[in-house]
């Protein structure tokens, strides 16, 4: 297993070019091309702003401007959820490669995660622009934690992507279950509401069990709230747990690897 | 010297999907059968205890009919699947020409696909950069290399896939029936490339249905049948053994076909249908059937080989006999026996009868046998159908069997036409051929 894991490092060239390919292929044929990567989050943010300031104003204290608060959580969540749904179909879509070419299968779910990470990064400038426009600049010192949060999320998402993609080969239902599970997970995470809400505090222990809570809260503290970040212990703990989960996920993937060529 | 590829007692068992295509997670959880569902329930051995060794630098052929395990063997060597038991050992870098252009992305250009495909096959960016021109020239796609691959024709797609895979510069090249991708010119180029590989001492494992290619190219060959090794060694010997087996199978098939044709043509009552007054009038209209008054009946038709054994496969130039078993209901004095040979296009190659050959009938009664003996079957390779008939001198049929019997002619020489005259080639001394080549 560890020999294979070091191979993963050797495949970085392959991973890199596959991510580039997916990004290129995604907008090939559209007029705006790569600009869509900026336009998509921009439009999303405009819609949220309109709905939550004009249609259904959310005036909860401490999370104003609300659209911006929400956006801090939604951006990483989109990365997470799209990665998983794409990873669930990654091995099946890449069946030709697995069946006909000697190809390291684990590259496929990881490419899904990384491609969506690039989209996440491309959404950040929009977020930053709006933080500036709303005169709500984040604490510069907090930003040091941003790469840490991204790294933890990357590890966590890759771990789940490996597990989901490997199991989806044998249990096709996973793709459908996953879509619903992700919706549930989204609402069970303080993304569109703050952790400080009274009702949330009542179930704090349960919320703390949700790994994405710590990512969402960390992003909000880093990007949205002014002042020192108080969630870093949780973030680091999640990082450690993610590393363990990644090893477990990789082990599972490795165990099932030989069945892929027949299963997909 | 260590062999390049070594298969030792390799068995590969595939899971056969029965009633349910995919186990569902729900049922697996409910019945706590996750582990059981991941294990095969019904199995199918694609390879069964196969061992062979491919020496380094040799070209090794794998033959066998469809479903005999050839491609599975290749996938095992490529490392795409693992054997259920036994071991597969391969020395050096492998490139597998199994599915060409697997992993091409339709939306992006040929150029980008070459790079990504090359990286998938284990090249570095720099290596691809260096070989890029060679790849594009080999694929003959210089004008289209910047167009998205989805606009390519299937031939272009395959050529590009082939060009990338062959330029990986492997130590061991695995080829699975991919030479059929291009036009004549491209196939030649591929063969030249294989020859170059051989010269450079690389190992090639070739799976193909082209026996010709095996005999011409391979140093050794193995014949797989139903997952088992039937023969290996000298390609000529292996191919011969394989052909014999194929003939046996074909023989069986033809025998069944003939039986079925006769049964199907059996009319409900004698003298039914619309018997043509003169069967020779529609000699060139190929419709199967049987008609006649049955006053004289042909009860059995068989083709006999040199030893007088029934057979359906003959080699060009072999002797062949058509034997008819006849039964006359009443003794009669008016009878003519006829035989006609038709090729697969329905062209009459030869037709004759006893009347045309001026044999004057005298008497016939009860059971009898008629044999039409050909000393040398001078036909080209192909499938032939036979008419046999017994009729009156005026043409009124007693029993006419139209195209009910099939036999096959095999030939080492792939000459064409409907008839092979006995011939020789003579050359004056200024013309010389290399020995060991040409028709045997």
Write down the secondary-structure element order of chain A: HHHHHHHHHHHH
Provide the domain count of chain B.
Answer: 2
The outline of chain A comes out as: globular
Low-pLDDT stretches of chain B are 268-286
State the share of residues found in helices of chain B, binned by percent: 25-40%
**Multimerization status:** heterodimer
Low-confidence stretches of chain A: none
The whole-number mean of residue pLDDT values of chain A reads 87
The separation of the N and C termini of chain B measures: 37 Å
Write the layout of secondary structure elements.
The complex is a heterodimer of chains A (264) and B (440).
Chain A: H1 2-10, H2 12-27, H3 36-55, H4 66-93, H5 95-100, H6 107-133, H7 146-170, H8 174-187, H9 198-202, H10 204-209, H11 211-224, H12 232-263
Helix pairs in contact in A: 2-6, 3-4, 3-6, 4-6, 4-7, 4-8, 4-11, 6-7, 7-11, 7-12, 11-12
Chain B: E1 5-16, H1 25-30, H2 34-38, E2 42-54, E3 59-63, H3 70-78, E4 85-90, E5 94-97, H4 110-120, H5 125-139, H6 154-166, E6 172-176, H7 184-199, E7 203-207, H8 211-217, E8 220-225, E9 228-233, H9 235-265, E10 289-291, E11 296-304, E12 313-315, E13 320-332, E14 336-343, E15 348-353, E16 364-374, E17 382-391, E18 397-410
Parallel strand pairs in B: 3-7, 3-8, 5-6, 6-7, 12-18
Antiparallel strand pairs in B: 1-2, 1-4, 8-9, 10-18, 11-13, 13-16, 14-15, 14-17, 17-18
